[in-house]
Amino acid sequence: MENKHLHFNTAIGVKKPENYRNKQQACPFCAREELTDLIEVDGPIILLKNKYPVLENAYQTVLIETDDCHAELSTYSKEHLHRLIQFGMRHWLEMEDSGNYKSVIFFKNHGPLSGGTLSHPHMQIVGLYDIDYRDQVNHDMFEGIVLAEEDGVRFSLSTKPRVGFYELNMEMDDTCYKERFSEYMQIAAHYILHHFPFKATSYNIFFYHYHSKIYAKVVPRFITTPLYIGYGLPQVPNNLHWMAGEIQRLYF
Q: Where in the chain is the domain with CATH 3.30.428.10?
């Protein structure tokens, strides 16, 4: 029978450091000289094996985005932003092309409601040996109101969100990297943290390689609606066109 569930090792999970609530916890990513199992270092950017591989039947890596513990993606210089995303995408696609995994997921947690445990900016690239995440992906989840489109990159607000409410999408061909892809992603993160109609402290970024396209989905995180948890029913808010207009007014 095909496996559709990730298995979480709780014995490892309880050992993971956490500093969103536990402010006394030292940040392990700041102690750069103590990091082990490094895969590649590019100045302040580091890719290394995850010291706490809580997912079974998976190869887990962590991408430390910067040496500034208090930085955040929406504040990065354009130079660092492009350097980081190209670095991450290269390793993600190389792991995918290796043939060692059924699929490879690439994602980012930011903030106390994002599902992450450490506030230091980082992403994760995880090779899954027996699960293909693309089985849960469809084109509908990337459809939306177009906010901007330039140089072959589309930026949209989902009209058929995957989980519900507000999801911001970026889309480009997988043939070459386009700077607008990351710049739209940065705008999405900045809007969520600084201009969202409800106070927002957290978001996720999910990357997808699907049908010769690279997609990213930036999702503000709040307490998840029970209708989705209990029944898998995404909700679509009635103010999407207002929000689309606000984003265009603020950034374009």
A: 10-134, 137-251
